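YM 10:42: Chaperone protein DnaJ sequence, as discussed on the call
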Amino acid sequence: MSQDLYETLGVSRDADGDVIKKAYRRLARQLHPDVNPDPATQEQFKEVTRAYEVLSDPEKRRMYDLGGDPFNGGGFGSAGAGQGFSFTDIMDAFFGGQGGAGGAAGSGRGPRPRARRGQDALIRLDVDLAEAAFGTTHELKVDTAVLCTVCNGEGAAPGSHPVPCETCGGRGETVHLQRSFLGEIRTMRPCAACRGFGTIIPEPCRECSGDGRVRSRRTLTVKIPAGVDTGTRVQLTGQGEVGPGGGPAGDLYVEMHVNDHPVFTRHNADLLCQVTVPMTAAALGTTISLPTLEADIASAESDVETAIPFTIPPGTQSGTETVLGGRGVPSLRGTGRGDLVVRIVVETPSRLDDRQQELLRELAALRDEESPDGQLNAHHQSVFDRLRKTFGQR
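YM 10:58: structure's back
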């Protein structure tokens, strides 16, 4: 391997400290004896570590650039004799700068805070179709973690407070030394006595057992916007679980489930309904009163249109569909409404008395339909079928 320290690390002579550190970490992962025990590789690892020890120190790097010997005076040479050289950066290369093997627990070279953000919560709310379409408000009873009012989230009993940990001196981590062929390897790990917090609660709060939060049932009012559908989630910021140590609360998500309606079927923003009329009404034509979805939320004092006149023209065939624009569900984004599709089903009488049969035979004779052959037609896809197929693909 080249004796030039810059070439050893694979960096240019004007590389800054971050570039040098990244290069060293990359090489350390490849050449560390725990990964590759080959003797030749161990020698390469020593050279890489030797180069990093010089180039990461501004004074030693300056001396090296000027042609001097940066190893005189207790540098790397003394470390090789086992005199306590720190290999924290070696451990950083394997554990992401988290202070060695114990860093995975969250120690960031210092005490970790007791207060942490709480989790988000999710509850389901059943609403009627009209409520989902036009919006409403609901009161919810939720069971979540809330701030302990006895200790105000601190976790300590009234009159007491957390005290610095004597084991780690309040740093939240302890030093562990291990001897190797390179000397003493020093790693930092979360303190086992205080679990990395740096403080100990000598007298925990009896109400929350030192957690800073308790379970409680509370009532919330949620505003449901117009146009929601099954699966829509309404976010209530800061209404979720309070975090450990009295940390900020997460969010509460209310997931909607829209109940089935006895008259209308919803497909996205459109409503479908089916009207059954007698054969005579379909033949002669009629006008019926068609209820609106607004009727479900109308009060005695309101002027909401609860029904609209719907005309069935003479000669209407069974399966005929009529689209009433703007009579569907309002858009969740507040731009317009869907349509109402009305499908007509003509009901053929199944029980006729003698007089009714006689009249129908007379009508058949008048229309020359006493012995019809029937007509064979190609399959016709109705508007309803096309809508159903389209909706089914979404």
